[in-house]
Amino acid sequence: MGRAYNLMHLMELHIQSNETVFEAIVEGVFTRGYAVADGFLPPPETRQIQQAVSSHYQTGHFNAAGIGKGQYYRMNQDIRRDHIHWIDHNSPPDAFVLFFKQLQGLVQYFNRTCYLGIRDMEFHLAVYPQGGFYKRHLDVFRHTHARKLSVIFYLNADWEESQGGQLRLYLPGEDGAEATLDLAPIAGRLVCFNSHTIEHEVLAARRERYSITGWLKDEPALF
Ligand code: OGA
Ligand code: MN
């Protein structure tokens, strides 16, 4: 009985602390267009994911990423040089279960508190090899606007500023000027931003750079 009570209590604490994180993300996205949440998952789980991505990458399960969608899809090494592997969020490999559980919680929180109508998501693993980058862009395609929010979860332990690879967000600055915000891809950090309004780029990484990247969408995928 006592033990059951304690467990219930712990679970409640866990839910409460998640809600604090979710609330901070929602608040950031709605007031500034973006949010940064460090420690979205605890270090051991984050490490486990990094190891899973790394071994998957080493066995050659990734493809060089292209740009555009459908008939507009093409490769362009001048624009992006990352390698990606799409994953099925409905039945993810073991290492990713907690990540998607936490993400579902975030989606429910978004839908409950601001009627965003997120009905689908798509996620891929991403590895930027040494020297990899992704030039300034928006995450929406010319002909489909289903992507509402971009979400990136970083997996790089002991990342140093001199290793580059920052996500650079282009934001409105003072007096109509443009401002930039550089975010290092440090392990455990989740960045979420409005896919329609926030232009961004990935600066050249001097070390292999790991992440899970995805989009929360307002219509189910057609294929
Ligand atoms: C993308 C992207 C940013 C990052 O994949 O569209 O912008 O920090 N990624 O990995
Ligand atoms: Mn992008």
Question: Strand order of the main beta sheet, please?
Answer: 1-9-6-11-4-3-2
**Describe the biggest sheet?**
7 strands, antiparallel
Overall shape: globular
CATH superfamily: q2cbj1_9rhob like domain
Order of helices and strands: HEHEEHEEEEEEEE
Query: How large is the share of residues in beta strands?
Result: 25-35%
Number of strands: 11
What binds here, in terms of ligands, is: N-oxalylglycine, manganese (II) ion
Rounded radius of gyration (Å): 18 Å
* Proper CATH architecture: Sandwich
Contiguous runs where pLDDT drops below 50 for at least 5 residues: none
CA-CA gap between termini: 49 Å
The SS-based structural class is alpha+beta
Q: In DSSP terms, counting alpha (H) and pi (I) runs of 4 or more, how many helices?
A: 3
CATH class reads Mainly Beta
- Helix share, percent: 25-40%
Q: What's the average pLDDT?
A: 90
What would the CATH topology be? Jelly Rolls
Tally of structural domains = 1
Q: In words, what does this structure look like?
A:
The protein is of the alpha+beta class and 223 residues long. It has a single domain, classed as Sandwich (Jelly Rolls). The chain has three helices and eleven strands; from the N terminus they run H-E-H-E-E-H-E-E-E-E-E-E-E-E. The protein has helices at residues 2-32, 43-58, 97-114; strands at residues 34-37, 63-64, 83-87, 120-128, 134-137, 147-154, 167-172, 178-183, 190-194, 199-202, 209-217. The protein has a seven-stranded antiparallel sheet with strand order 1-9-6-11-4-3-2. It has a four-stranded antiparallel sheet with strand order 5-10-7-8, with no helix packed on it. Helix 1 (2-32) crosses helix 3 (97-114). It starts with a helix and ends in a 6-residue tail after the last strand. The mean pLDDT is 90. Residues 126, 134, 139, 152, 167, 200, 202, 211, 213 line the site of N-oxalylglycine (OGA). N-oxalylglycine binds at residues 126, 134, 139, 152, 167, 200, 202, 211, 213.
